[in-house]
Amino acid sequence: MRVEEKKSIFFEIKTTTMKEVIISTEAVNSYGTRVLTSGIDLEQYKRNPVLLWMHRRAWDGQSMPIGKIDNLRVKDGKLIGTPVFDQNDEFARKIESKWDSGFLRMASAALEPTEVNPDPALALEGQTRATVTRSKLVEVSIVDIGSNDEALQLCGADGKLLKLAAGEDAPALPLLKLSNPEPTPEGRSPADNKNNNNQNQTTTMNKEQLMLLGLPEGASDEQATAALQLMKTKADNAEMLQLAAVTQCVDQAIAERKILGGQRDHYIKLGKTAGVEMLADTFKTMPTQQKPTDTLNLSNQTAPGAGGGRQTKTYAKLSEVPQSELLTLRKEQPAEYMRLYREEYGIDCPPLSE
Question: Which H or E run includes 45?
Answer without folding.
Answer: helix 43-47
